[in-house]
C-alpha cells in the first residue's frame, strides 16, 4: 500500500544520521473537524512546514520530531522538551512548536562538529480546508503550500518558500528563496533571496534588496522594486511599474502603463499593444527599446552625453544634440526615454 500523503511528505529528505550520533525520531498525529474554524496559524521556528488542502474538509497534522546528539541522554532530553501544541482561539486554529529554552552543555572534543552538535527540529505536514486563510511563520524552516485558495501570509527568516497554486498571498523572507506558481495575486518580499514567479493570474508586487527576480507567464500588471538584483520579466500585458538602483532589467512584451526607472542599471524593454504610455529612465545605464510592429507612438528620447540610435523608420519632428522627438507609425501614444550618460537604442522589428 502507498504510505499516507502526510507521512510521505515528512519522509522526504531524511538522511541517515552519522553512526556516532544518537538520533531520535518521534511521529505523532492529530485530526479534528473544522467546525468553528475560520483561519489557521502555524508557528515552527526550525522545521519544514508543508500545507495542503484536506480532501475531506478536516484538519490533519502529522508531526515528525527529530533530535540528534552524540549523547543518548541529551537527544532524549531535547526530544522530551520539544512540544507541539494545538488550540482554537476565537476561530483561529493554532499549531505551535515549542523548543527547549535551556542550553545544552557540549563536550568540546566529543560534540563540537557539524554532524554531532545537539539539535532538534519538528517537521509538520498539515492538511486544512483549502478556503481557510492561513498564516505560517518560521525562522530557519522551509515553507511549502499546495493548492490553498484562502489568503496566505507566509513569513520566514532564512527558510525557502515554495507555493504551488494559491489565491492571494503575502510572502516575506530575509535570505530565503521564493518560488511561486499559479497564484491569483499578492505581494512577495525578500532581502537577499531570489524570487521566481510563474503564471500569476492577477496583479503581483515583488520587492528585493539584492535578490534576483524572474517573472514569467504573467497575465496582469507587475510592480517590481529592487536595489541591486537583476530583473527578468517575460511579459506584463497590463503594465509594469519597476524601480531599480543598480540592477539590470530585461522586460518582455509589456502593454498598458509602463514605468521603468533605474539609476545605473541597463534597461531592455519591449513595448506591445494596447499601450497607454511609457516612461523609461536611467542615469547611466543603456536603454534599449524594442517596439512591437503594431505599436504606434510619439517618441521622445533624451540623453545628455550618450548616443541616441534609431534603428527603424520614424518621422522626425525635432532632432538636436542629445534629443530626438519623432512619430512612429503616425501614433500619438507618449513614449519617453531619458538617460544622463547612457546610450539609447530604439528598434522596431519585434522579438
Task: Explain what this protein looks like in three dimensions.
- With 351 residues, the chain is mainly beta.
- The chain folds into three domains: 132 residues, no CATH class; 109 residues, no CATH class; 102 residues, no CATH class.
- 6% of the residues lie in helices and 55% in strands.
- The chain is built from three helices and 27 strands.
- An eight-stranded parallel beta barrel has the order 12-13-15-17-19-18-16-14.
- About 5% of the residues have low confidence.
- Strand arrangement within the widest β-sheet reads 12-13-15-17-19-18-16-14
Mean pLDDT over the residues: 90
- How much of the polypeptide forms β-strand, as a percent range? over 45%
Shape estimate = elongated
Helix coverage percent: under 10%
Number of strands: 27
SSE arrangement, N to C: HEEEEHEEHEEEEEEEEEEEEEEEEEEEEE
- What is the CA-atom radius of gyration, in angstroms? 26 Å
As for the number of domains, it is 3
- The SS-based structural class is mainly beta
Q: How is the biggest beta sheet arranged?
A: 8 strands, parallel, barrel
N- and C-termini, Cα separation: 52 Å
Low-confidence stretches: 12-19, 106-115
Assembly classification: single chain
What count of helical segments does DSSP give?
A: 3
Features:
mainly beta, 3 domains, single chain, 8-stranded parallel barrel, 3 helices, 6% helix, 351 residues
Annotate the secondary structure layout.
Layout: H1 5-11, E1 22-32, E2 39-43, E3 49-53, E4 59-69, H2 72-80, E5 83-89, E6 92-98, H3 108-111, E7 119-128, E8 134-137, E9 143-148, E10 152-156, E11 161-173, E12 178-190, E13 195-198, E14 204-207, E15 213-216, E16 222-226, E17 231-236, E18 240-244, E19 249-262, E20 267-282, E21 287-291, E22 297-303, E23 308-311, E24 315-320, E25 323-328, E26 333-339, E27 344-347
Parallel strand pairs: 2-6, 2-8, 3-7, 3-9, 8-10, 9-11, 10-11, 11-12, 12-13, 12-14, 13-15, 14-16, 15-17, 16-18, 17-19, 18-19, 19-20, 20-21, 20-26, 21-27, 22-26, 23-27
Antiparallel strand pairs: 1-4, 4-7, 5-6, 22-25, 24-25
